[in-house]
Design brief:
CATH architecture of the largest domain: 3-Layer(aba) Sandwich
GO molecular function, one term: hydrolase activity
Mean pLDDT: 97
CATH topology of the largest domain: Rossmann fold
Family: Belongs to the peptidase S33 family.
Radius of gyration: 18 Å
Low-confidence stretches: none
Keywords: Hydrolase
Protein name: Alpha/beta hydrolase
CATH class of the largest domain: Alpha Beta
InterPro entries: AB_hydrolase_1, AB_hydrolase_fold, AB_hydrolase_sf, Peptidase_S33
């Protein structure tokens, strides 16, 4: 369905599972998990069907960021972290969601970090998965070279410094298989993903270049889980450790996954979903 979150702004939203479930003589309300996808320029489909295994604990809201996927097209002036972070609040207001659990994967983690800074009291919990707080180009290049050699480093360098349709295609061809350490459980997941290349290139050439999200993390007012694959080349371990250090210590839970790349549930689903379940269920 498409939900209007502001005049003329509609997001594609999909809901999995009931919010109220029978529990003896009462109806019990489950918490709401809002899943924010990576990219930019991608859609929510990478969360499916894996995240369905959490539906017994939470009602899951999947959505496509403003301008992305099946959400309505929007002008490039709205392709900003300010808009995307504020859209979480707008979406919750439209759906009547109070104190959601907000999960941001990769680029969705940029949005979630900015959301913490702008709306620190809004969420009940936040999950920052396989994400970074800055460009951190040298770390990326070194990691891609370790995993794919000089050719991968050169492709990554060309794309992240000078994003264009040509450098993007060369990068995706040379580096996409290096994001993860194990063959995909769902080999056709990438084919199902809708990609808006214009948003991708606009963000990487613009806001991404000077990205600095650490200062706002000190404002966190809820528990925050930082999940990182220790062999993630595009959002390296060092970035996650710096994110963790910037958060209030009493709010932080850090989960490191050895031998894992980008998106821990892709390379080690049993361990990743166990961590998610524990964090979601904790009081």
């Amino acid at each position: 369905m498409r939900v209007e979150i502001a005049p003329g702004v509609r997001l594609f939203v999909d809901v999995e599972g009931p919010g109220l479930v029978p529990d003896g003589a009462q109806m019990r309300e489950k918490p709401t998990l809002i899943c924010m996808h990576g990219g930019p320029g991608f859609d929510h489909s990478a969360f499916k069907p894996g995240f369905s295994r959490l539906a017994d604990l939470v009602q899951i809201i999947y959505y496509d960021h403003r301008g992305h996927g099946r959400s309505d097209p929007r002008p490039s002036s709205e392709w900003t972290l300010d808009h995307w972070a504020d859209d979480i609040v707008r979406l919750c207001d439209a759906l009547g969601i109070v104190k959601p659990i907000v999960l941001g994967q990769s680029f969705g983690g940029f949005v979630a970090q900015h959301y913490i800074a702008r709306h620190p009291g809004h969420a009940s919990k936040v999950i920052l998965s396989s994400t970074s707080h800055h460009m951190g180009l040298e770390r990326k290049l070194a990691a891609f070279e370790r995993r794919g050699g000089p050719q991968a480093r050169a492709a990554a360098d060309a794309f992240w410094r000078t994003p264009s349709p040509a450098s993007w295609q060369a990068y995706w061809q040379a580096c996409r298989a290096l994001y993860n350490t194990r063959p995909p459980l769902d080999p056709q997941a990438g084919e199902r993903t809708l990609i808006n290349e214009q948003i991708l290139l606009h963000f990487v050439a613009g806001e991404k270049q000077a990205l600095q999200l650490l200062p706002g993390l000190a404002r966190a007012q809820c528990p925050v889980l930082v999940m990182v694959g220790e062999d993630d080349p595009v959002c390296p371990l060092e970035d996650a450790l710096e994110i963790a250090a910037a958060l209030p210590a009493e709010r932080l839970q850090l989960a490191r996954f050895p031998g894992v790349g980008h998106g821990a549930w892709r390379d080690d689903p049993e361990a990743a979903y166990a961590v998610l379940r524990q964090f979601i269920a904790a009081a």
